[in-house]
């Protein structure tokens, strides 16, 4: 086994970071997996799902609702603190959800499970935080069951955000977020590169379905959730600190970005579209 | 009535332009409409659909498969030639499809139909070719039936293309396509602006669902269809001629773009993602 990769979640776990993650559900962030989950669940009532890098676990909990009668999800992350938060969220969904989910600290680079241990291996916005994404995909393929198991991945692309109304400060925000992500050792172009990582990890092209999915923040409640979270990041988040440390932004620049987000949140015709790469690998 | 807008389809109807349009189906290009079409069709077996700017009509024909028993689609365009092509395509799909579709020459700015004449009004990649998109949306809202009729729109965004493997020449192609579109009087940022056009046309925000959808060209057959069509455009299309006329590109630049598309078509890990704005307006 090669030396373990450095295990740090670059953005950290400040509420400014985790809050908008909790907007995420299976429906808005793992829709490409759902037909496969339902198909496999019809054939196997004891479906075993691994959710790698589950974070605060809102997608995990909503995936649980798509499982067959005896299906289970094991959620991993590298932080015990965030797994505690995920556990609390799962319990709040009631026993039908929480009884299906267990939690275990694990690195995506060295999953402590035997080959083929899971029917479905899912990871959402995990590879973009890793220095060696293909190594993590190789591990996910290893623990996925041969003969039809599925690895499901989704990664954002920091180059694929569009805002309306157009504001230079929002574009500066996107650039700052990108630069901080890269400075943290992450991958800014995961959406477009996801397929290449999967092939580097040993999958064959014919076994991979590649596509793109989106997030749209435009309805008033979605604008408030997203814009409020971005303003929190600018006021108190790791992005602010790192931006100052790296000389990427000034106090005045931060204030202008905050005002631009406030204006965007207030505009009835506002949209933010973000594109994410999505792949399904069917393991032979 | 205000003076009619100039009615020209900027890109023209050369095969280099129309060929890749014929890859489009209801499933890959109007998925946001399908649940509404099925919902409305269950309540009304005589559902009346208007497809504005139907072009070569492949989406029209595949929408016909989602209609209730006595449902019909009227397809309009400003070109009789392209409507002939659409009619031929519809006839090739067999009588179950062709009996439902009729064709009529019409401008999106002045739809020759009474108020509320259609239960569903659909337009795909039409507004991006117009100088006054909101005026066309106002017409579509006018001919849509009040009390629950639906206007369904989808518009691309030329700023939201991502390529892998990264190649400067593909980015130059995207920029050339954008510049030619704008020189033809079109709108390059329709994806992000679609909601704003709909509100300018008089819709209320609470009656609009806004989102984004994507095209992905990555599977071998999709790479061949898209790449081949882009190379045709560079070799013989209106984009080439206009690019030369406007001094946007050189012969050598064109050749380099063609080679870049050929390499992209041959790469197993190649992806092209394109994001489109999508809205559904429910007419009160």
TrEMBL record, chains A, B:
Sequence intervals crossing the membrane: none
Family note: Belongs to the methyltransferase superfamily. LaeA methyltransferase family.
InterPro entries xref list: Methyltransf_11 (IPR013216), SAM-dependent_MTases_sf (IPR029063)
The Methyltransferase type domain, residue ranges: 50-150
Keyword hit for Calcium: no
Keywords: Methyltransferase, Transferase
GO biological process: methylation
Natural source organism: Corynascus novoguineensis
Record's protein name: S-adenosyl-L-methionine-dependent methyltransferase
Pfam name, any one: Methyltransf_11
An example Gene Ontology molecular-function term: S-adenosylmethionine-dependent methyltransferase activity
């Amino acid at each position: 086994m090669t030396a373990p990769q450095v295990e740090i979640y670059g953005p950290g776990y400040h509420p400014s970071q985790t809050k908008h993650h909790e907007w995420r559900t299976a429906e808005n962030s793992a829709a490409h997996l759902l037909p496969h989950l339902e198909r496999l669940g019809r054939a196997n009532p004891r479906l075993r799902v691994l959710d790698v890098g589950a974070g605060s676990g809102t997608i995990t909990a909503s995936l649980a609702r798509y499982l067959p009668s005896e299906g289970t999800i094991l959620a991993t992350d590298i932080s015990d603190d965030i797994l505690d938060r995920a556990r609390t969220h799962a319990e709040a969904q009631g026993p039908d959800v929480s009884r299906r989910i267990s939690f275990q600290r694990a690195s995506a680079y060295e999953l402590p499970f035997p080959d083929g241990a899971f029917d479905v291996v899912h990871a959402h916005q995990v590879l973009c935080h890793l220095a060696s994404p293909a190594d993590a995909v190789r591990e996910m393929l290893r623990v996925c069951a041969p003969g039809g198991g599925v690895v499901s991945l989704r990664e954002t692309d920091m180059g694929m955000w569009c805002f309306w109304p157009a504001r230079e400060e929002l574009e500066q925000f996107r650039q700052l977020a990108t630069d901080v992500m890269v400075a943290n050792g992450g991958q800014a172009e995961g959406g477009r590169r996801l397929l290449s990582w999967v092939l580097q990890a040993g999958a064959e092209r014919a076994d991979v379905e590649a596509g793109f999915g989106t997030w749209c923040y435009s309805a008033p409640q979605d604008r408030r959730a997203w814009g409020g979270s971005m303003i929190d990041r600018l006021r108190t988040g790791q992005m602010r600190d790192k931006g100052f440390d790296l000389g990427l932004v000034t106090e005045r620049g931060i204030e202008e970005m905050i005002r631009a987000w406030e204006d965007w949140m207030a505009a009835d015709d506002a949209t933010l579209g973000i594109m994410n790469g999505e792949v399904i690998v069917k393991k032979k």
